[in-house]
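So, does this match?
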Amino acid sequence: VISYDAVSEYYCNKIYPKLNNLERNIRKLLFNIYIVNFGKDYYKATVSEELQSKIKGVIRPKGNQKQKETTVIQEFFYSFDFNDIQNLLFVPKWTEIDENAKRKFLESNNDLTLLSDEVLRATFETLEPKSDWDRFFSSKITGIDFQNIINTIRIYRNTVAHCKFFYTDNYHDCYHAINRLNNA
């Protein structure tokens, strides 16, 4: 029975600043991307109602309605856990943006029989649920399996955050995963 593991503590303490920095940078990146694309209502654009409710429950804003809205805008991404970030980025979903694109296509093409098979197929391929990774990032970052790297880091981050066993091999694997993200 191990009652205290100094080696594990050493490696947890050594990797924590890197995890902390990465996590804050991911949240900052998300905030900037969403604000630029959607303005102050960024969290309503592609985030599911369930995730919005969960995060607002974590934030628990106080004050009048304007103060509550300001708090949500400021703290939304900082209230995500890594699993929430993974869901936001990698789970395909149909959004109001997709619905508006579909409506615009149908309104501008009253008779679909006049369109070629090629045009219809190309349009249908664009009118499918997309992940936010596909919407905002995949065309800018290629050749890296971000979903896998984020998942690897999430596993190691949770190990460190919950003071579990974490040794030199874990440290090196986590360190390399963090570097892959930082260099992307």
